[in-house]
Write a structure and sequence with these properties.
The protein has 252 residues and is an alpha/beta fold. It is built from ten helices and eleven strands. It folds into two domains: 94 residues, Ribosomal protein L30/S12 (60s Ribosomal Protein L30, Chain: A, 2-Layer Sandwich); 144 residues, SPOUT methyltransferase, trefoil knot domain (Alpha/beta knot), CATH 3.40.1280.10. A six-stranded parallel beta sheet has the order 8-7-6-10-9-11, with helices on both faces. Strands 1-4-3-5-2 form a five-stranded mixed beta sheet.
């Protein structure tokens, strides 16, 4: 049977995942497009439902093997269930992983974000941290929802590879310091020569306009990227990418 109505109850429940309220109530989030869905399958994500546009049945078997309840839908229904203007033929709801901050953080580099509110920046930072081999992402208050459609799309599947935690940043940075992590933050008034971080380092990236809050910055080694042109600062995700790369390279 093909679902043809956008008023179908199953379709309405899935579309509710566009909102934070819907994601919290249902404990899952939407992914869309062949690449993200395949990445979820390969990463062992827990599927709830999947929707495939009629005429694309070959994807159905892989999704059923991954545990998804699969439904064929019309193009109109697919457009209702996707965030992009020209959607691909598949989308799915997957269970959102546990995001509570751990009691003990894994060694390596932790990327902590202080009120990074732009969804695209957040997703890009998650993807960058994953690519360079960070151990996890810690989101303080004021950050965008990492499982909203835009960050999920910008992360390009990295939310399936790297743990993402939520925590109160003042408390969690104290915990990280107690566990032997060197705390580093990007700061316009920081040192331009990085320190050697050892094998445990937490890099804190601040809000796009106001930077790292002063209370957090006071705990950190403040690091400033050397810039030779006339621009005073960089986009948060660009700055994060350079700092993450520099410190992870030093740690290796």
């Amino acid at each position: 049977m093909i679902i043809e109505s956008t008023r179908n109850e199953r379709v309405k429940n899935a579309a509710a995942l566009f909102s934070r309220k819907g994601r919290l109530e249902q404990g899952c989030h939407l992914i869309e497009g062949e690449k993200l869905v395949n990445e979820a399958i390969l990463s062992g994500a827990v599927f709830k439902e999947a929707f495939i546009e009629e005429g694309h049945d070959p994807m159905r078997k892989a999704l059923e093997n991954a545990g998804a309840n699969v439904f064929l839908v019309t193009r109109a229904v697919m457009e209702k269930l996707t965030f992009t203007k020209t959607p691909q033929y598949v989308c799915a709801s997957v269970i959102t992983p546990e995001t509570e901050a751990p009691d003990v953080y894994p060694a390596g580099l932790i990327v902590a974000l202080d009120a990074v509110s732009d969804p695209g920046n957040l997703g890009t930072i998650i993807r960058t941290a994953d690519a360079f081999g960070a151990s996890g992402i810690l989101l303080g208050s004021g950050c965008a929802d990492p499982f909203a459609p835009k960050p999920v799309r910008a992360a390009m599947g990295s939310t399936f590879h790297i743990p993402v935690w939520h925590g109160e940043l003042d408390r969690e940075t104290d915990k990280l310091a107690e566990q032997g992590f060197t705390l580093v933050c990007g700061h316009l008034k920081g040192e331009e020569t990085p320190l050697f971080p050892g094998n445990k380092c937490a890099v804190i990236i601040g809000n796009e306009s106001s930077g790292v809050s002063e209370g957090i910055a006071m705990k950190c080694f403040r690091y400033r990227l050397t810039m030779y042109g006339r621009a005073e600062s960089l986009n948060a995700s660009v700055a994060a990418g350079i700092i993450i790369y520099e410190f992870l390279k030093a740690m290796r």
